[in-house]
Design brief:
Two copies of one chain form a homodimer. By secondary structure, chain A is of the alpha+beta class. In chain A, strand 5 and strand 6 form a beta hairpin. In chain A, helix 2 packs across helix 3 and helix 2 crosses helix 4. The first copy, chain A, starts with 7 loop residues before the first strand and ends with a strand. Strand 3 of chain A pairs antiparallel with strand 8 of chain B, so a sheet runs across the interface.
Chain lengths: 189, 189
């Protein structure tokens, strides 16, 4: 009888991570994921998303609990400020993904990290959204992620660590390179 | 003495919307916004963002309350599933922004909407993130937004309504066209 010892680095079970990589290498279909949310408009700038079960390598995976994400706009943007607004959620998605990607890939390399914090800011010119100037884009013009890390590593390793997020993060890749978004609409009965 | 009557459509104060557009037209600096989050790693795939005050046309604007956004990964992705994961937050940001952009711009056109719901799904191949295949991107390969709407409009108006999100949404623009993300890192004391 074999016994398995989990190797945990940065909270990541590296034994399972290695097994996952081997499994997806052997059966590429296992790498196919589909994530989903269902959104419902409440009023004005308020709407809620319910995170759905996701498809992961051949199976539907429910989340442990329901996650309801509340979006709203602040008063200056005519809303009631019941939640972060969509462009703030985008910054959170980016910060979270860059952090997790770094933490997981550091674990895979056996590098222990003590702490990670980040400040993320994005510049947006409302003249795009308000249809005032066709030369101003609607979205973010620039985003900056400032990482702060505590780890027992050399300066060079610190630079290598901070590159892992941009190299591997799915949200960083999506946002920096862009992705096709198909929008369709139908009438509700 | 003048009295002002607020015109509300879709919950949006169209009088204030019109005044905002006029103000930003007259003083383009008022259109300059900066949104911010502060993220902190907890363990493994869990990290939290605190949404910060934002800069809006010359002033710092605090939110009414604190918004803490919890990201985590599901067990199959080695996490503890305490919150939606980063790529799910990205879908929420998109759904929320497309919806709000449509609702506000419909209000500006005097078009009342009764209900909006949307299903958003994104395809992601983990072979990118797991560094298994250099030909597979890390991020989303495709995203689909399926809107369902209830409004007393013609079919042509329905199509026009559903185009407002893609035309004006900041998150849609950011995700489809891409944006530069600068990442820097420093050692924490």
């Amino acid at each position: 009888m074999q016994s398995k010892v989990a190797t945990i680095t940065n909270g990541v079970d590296v034994t399972r991570l290695t097994e996952t990589i081997a499994a997806v290498k052997a059966t590429p279909e296992l790498g196919k994921f589909q994530f989903r949310v269902e959104n419902r408009w409440i009023d004005c700038g308020e709407n809620h998303s319910e995170v759905q079960p996701f498809y992961a390598g051949g199976q539907e995976v429910p989340h442990k609990t329901d996650f309801t994400l509340v979006a709203d706009e602040a008063d200056i943007l005519l809303g009631t400020d019941k939640g972060a607004n969509p462009v703030e959620y985008l910054l959170h998605a980016l910060a979270a993904c860059v952090t997790t990607s770094m933490v997981y890939h550091a674990a895979g390399r056996g590098i222990a990290i003590d702490r990670v914090e980040s400040s993320v800011e994005g510049d947006l010119d409302l003249r795009g959204f308000l249809d005032i100037s066709p030369n101003v884009r609607n979205g973010y013009q620039n985003i900056r992620v400032k990482l702060r890390m505590k780890a027992d590593v050399t300066d060079e390793q610190l630079r290598e660590l901070s590159a892992l997020g941009p190299i591997f993060s799915p949200v960083y890749d999506t946002i920096t390179r862009g992705v096709r978004v198909a929008v369709s609409a139908e009438r509700m009965s």
